Amino acid sequence: MEIHTRFPLLHWLPKTVFDKILTCVGKGWATGNYMNLLRKKDIKAICKAAGARRIEIKGNRLLGIVMDYSIIVAK
Q: What's the rounded Cα separation, in Å, for the pair 25 and 73?
């Protein structure tokens, strides 16, 4: 379930298809560069650039598939 738009599995579609569907159902605000999936590698890079040194990234799974991440930053 994509939490912002409340559509199941939609965020796994190609970005162009994702945007087109959202526009058709009146959720055009979520198209374009508004929402982009981040890989674990991307999240690590963002945390590092923000100065976080000790981070733990946990994948929250549903039926074995990572749906989102929880990020724990230690001081």
A: 37
Distance CA 62, CA 13 (A): 18
- Residues 11, 21: one domain? yes
Amino acid at 49: A
Q: What span, in angstroms and rounded, lies between the C-alpha atoms of 33 and 15?
A: 10
Number of structural domains the chain divides into: 2
Q: Tens of pLDDT along 7-52?
A: 777 777 888 998 999 899 998 888 888 777 788 999 999 999 999 9
Is pTM beyond 0.85? Reply is: no
The helix (H) or strand (E) run that includes residue 33 is none
